[in-house]
Amino acid sequence: MATQDIIQRSGTSQATPPAQARVGGVKQIAKLFDATKCNGCKACQVACSEWNDLREEVGSFQGTYQNPASLSPECWTLMKYNEIEDQGKLRWQFTHSACMHCADPACLKACSTSGAIVQHANGTVDFDSDKCIGCGYCASACPFDIPKISAVDNKAYKCTMCSDRLAVGLEPSCVKSCTTGALRFGTREDMLFSAEKRVNELKERGFAKAGLYNPEGVGGTGMLMILHDVTQPETYEMPKDPQIPLSVTLWQDWVKPLGTVGLLATAAVACLHKITVGRNIVEEDQPGYQPPEDKAQAEEEAKK
Amino acid sequence: MNRRQFFKLCAAGAATSAISALGLMSEKAYAAVREFKLIGAKETRNNCPYCSVGCGLLMYSQGSGGKNSEHAIFHIEGDADHPVNRGALCSKGAGLVDYVNSPHRLQYPEYRAPGSNKWERISWHDAFKRIARLMKDDRDANLIEKNADGVTVNRWLTTGMMTSSGMANESGLATQKFARALGLVAIDTIARN
To answer: Pfam families, from UniProt (chain B) (predicted)?
Structure first.
């Protein structure tokens, strides 16, 4: 049984859209990460690993509280401990690093395997690992560097926004566990509303550059972020202006359709040639064919 | 196979793959989300014992609750109806399932003799007996029955007691009665560790 609520499907042309009878009335959801409330407790990271049955190997100390050093096939949510120097003092800027669930996902666009990456009507971008062929296009296309390829089964993995929990009406595991309320979950509309309220509150309290990180280059994101200084998302290890890479757009929107057109045009021209010109008759293959020398000889003999 | 047949085969192959690339081949549709793993699991409420906050937990174990199954906990998350944490848990609480199922978990009393570097397994009976003996000896030696003004105080200051933090009120009361009756003053819960 398909879920029938998939609005975008990788490797699928617009002529054959995914089954999507059950999208009416489905509301867009969003996760709101408020960096100004986060205290880096890593509850989200542990809750993610617990719910999704992921157990990353215990690594070694890398000079920071961040562990593991980056997202991995066994770590879909990572608390990033970005160290900032602020007026001569160390300050942490915590980032809840997980899939951003872009409205216009670069991974889905880059993926050429039908249905290996899907987008549900509620906005969640999900990987179907059974279909994944491990080409890694998603990982190289993602402007946030989220998907990771497993060395065990050569498949791509990332945060699913706990799509299995959403499907039964629950919130994602990370959001439920958050002790400070830095992670919130609800309809996109509600999250945008409370984000605006919070940003205004922060501005009143003197954080003039506080704002909402919801980059337009990828059509907005399913994970919204409230930052102390939205003009410098790099300090949270977030890209300033994430875009779908030009190579992906060129390949999927231009080269591939052109290839299909070329294929069809070749077939059409061949067909036309068959009708107008017809078969290419090879004289040598015809019955009663005589090589030219024989023919000349025969003619000479006939003259005699 | 001659040259002509080879070309025909190639053309047929190209045409077939072109058709499938156009999405005309049907394929089986599978559910795109993982199956929800708690359907039918036995849900048990409890408290987290790992700090003095005392967050409410929902513990999920395999089995219907029938008498023939041994229940193994496979998931723990916060209890949204608990007034203390309202569903949230810290990183220790969120990872509790690995504490419960840890291979390093202490499951029986062990004894390490002074100067030894080895833990030896002992029976519960021996453990209770030894604890009672040491408590009695210490209490007999150090109980302060009266203070300087001659008022009866019955204080036992040389021993403290660490109690469970995962108790309900009633067990807490029983623990208090037991400890205070002995004259213990220093009483705390394991939540503080």
So the answer is: Molybdop_Fe4S4
